[in-house]
Amino acid sequence: MSQLNETGSMLHSLSGKPGDSRGQRLFHHGSRVCLLITLSILVTALFPPSAGNDSLPFEDWSVAPDDVIAEVGFSVEKSASELEDERQLAREVVPPTFDVEPNAGDTMVARIDGFFSELDSAAAVGDRVRFEETLRASSIIATPAQVDYIMGDSARSAFHHSATRAVREIMEDGVVEAARVADLSTTRITIRGNDSIERTAQISEVLTTRDFLNEAALLLPPGTPPSISDLLNLVLIRHIEYSYVLNVVATEMDRDAAARSVETIKQEFLEGQSIVRQGDPVGPEVLEHLRAHENERRNRGLVQDQEVAVGVFLGSGLINLMLLGLFGLLIFFNRPKLYATFHWLLLISVLITAYFSAALAISEAGFSDALLPIAFVALPVAILWDTRISLFLVLVIAAITGRLAPFSSYGTFLLIAAGGSAAALSVRVLRRRSDWWVSIAIIASVTGLMLLSLGLVTSRAMPEVALDAALAGSNAAVSALLAMGCLFVFEWFTGITTDHTLLEWADPTRPLLRRLSSEAPGTYAHTVNVANLSEGAATAIGANGLLSRVGAYYHDVGKMLKPHYFVENQPEGRNPHDKLKATTSADILREHVTEGLELAHEAKVPQVISQFILEHHGTQRIGFFFEKAREEMGGEVDFERFSYPGPKPQSKETAIVMLADSCESATRALQEPTVPRLQDLINTVVDGKIADGQLEEAPLTLREVADVKAEFVKILSGVMHRRIEYPATRHLTDTISSKDASSTLDEPAERKGLAEGLSG
Asked: Can you say whether the dihedral through the CA atoms of 233, 237, 240, 245 is positive or negative?
């Protein structure tokens, strides 16, 4: 049994404090070391080092230090982009195939004859309406003058004859649809007859739609008005049947065959042939030849033996271990909570693994370094934890990536470092999920500028630089959107509530806040004031101001179930506690904490916000009713029954909300809220909390407490200053203004307010 307990304790020690026993500490720290070693081995396995020292370091060459002669014959393959470009060009130069339609003329003549037969029938009886409807049925819109002209028998007959003649005489030469040849990249087409005999013709030799219409207009009787020529064009267009029809299937088959015929080999090198001479510049093309030569040597087993390769693998793994270990040491010394929480470390490891897995896919596909998804790692780490951790992790990943064989260059290191740093720093502008486009723009801009700088330094062609910049922008967008999409999962896995989630819960239209504002308006106004105080004070000492504000919004939600029992919701002179026993009143006040927690649980409020409900009163005594109970019971009172359940504030943010809650309540009764009187009141309230031990578990220093009090005075003095007295409302303020400006806290209302503040 003791062994089982020991095992359970050791498993529990994965997260949290290491434990007291040596075994627990060893298990706690050892699990993290094992995670680090596993991650290092995984990265090394994904990118195994070069098989030997015989591999030439040509990646860093600007000029060749020596002659490089091919030890073996090898081929230089075309890159995927080059091969695709050539295949596309081969497709474009293939002329399209058009099939001859021998019956096109007959079909068109029959359609035209039918059309004119309808016109003749309408004209014979003088039915102009039917005549125009026949025209419109063929989508021919004619002017009144054109209708008058064509309704004449002789004119219509000549019109019919010209249309039929145009088809018989011109269609025989072959007519192709103009749209089919307008965008062709070739000057030729292939014409295939019914006998499958093909011939090639120049596009300029083939009549298009426009050519057909122009020649048809010449067949009209001399002196025919231009408007009638236009009408003839309409008639022919609406009834046209092309004698040359594009054969899409045959054309695509020819183009596919042309694309497949493109050679994949760019250049062949023979054994003994010179690849580069000493002193010659090593540009992208020469570098490609050198890499192809190295790959062929490696494939033939000419690069070092297996025993030495193991040593190289071990050395590379140790380098990765040292670099990742530096990140681990940073966490150990500067982020103890992150180090202590194993599943947080596991998530970071998963992100690193995902990055290098994507890097492997990119290298295998031969894509640009600009597609390395460093933003997918930097953004979640910066959002979930902080920017500094993210920046250091980016530098570690950049250092590892820069020494990997597929990306081995100083430029890659700079590109990853710049893009990742931009991603980590851009988190500062992310206040809402709709602001992600700003982060994308920052990452894309920084990466693009770095690519431009590297391109100028290495004299790369600007079109290539522009393409990489476009890829970097796409990568920034995809990585950021993917990180945003996974952020919900990351929050669930880590239990961390990000600022984005906090902002969503700060929305006043949330059902719980909407209920609070309608059912307990006084409490809602109080929470808004407490939120303003808390955020200002938290920001002043470097705590999370947003968390303090949102926590303050929800700290008193339990009051909405019995709002009239709390002073801020009570009409003047009506206090239901006057008719209750002190114990009952104390129970009601205590219950607003537990009931608020239940409401928060039902509304699925994040745990980090719910803590404010539990901790904003700590374990402090309900002073007023405690004293009342002593009077009722003759001095024998259960102290626990007149104390809040707690716990005491565990964070700076919950401690600040406790102080803000009490100070806001106490200051409401001040008749003359001058700065000195506010200072005295706030000092009294805060010092009372300290004396009661309510802040002893919160990580607040005395200096921070002093800064919190100063911020409270600054905010409250701005909110509670005396207003200008207007003549129209003077009768409403005479009572107040007539009071002595030197009034003190000895007045009953002020003493009651102070008591409320001290007791929470």
From this structure: positive
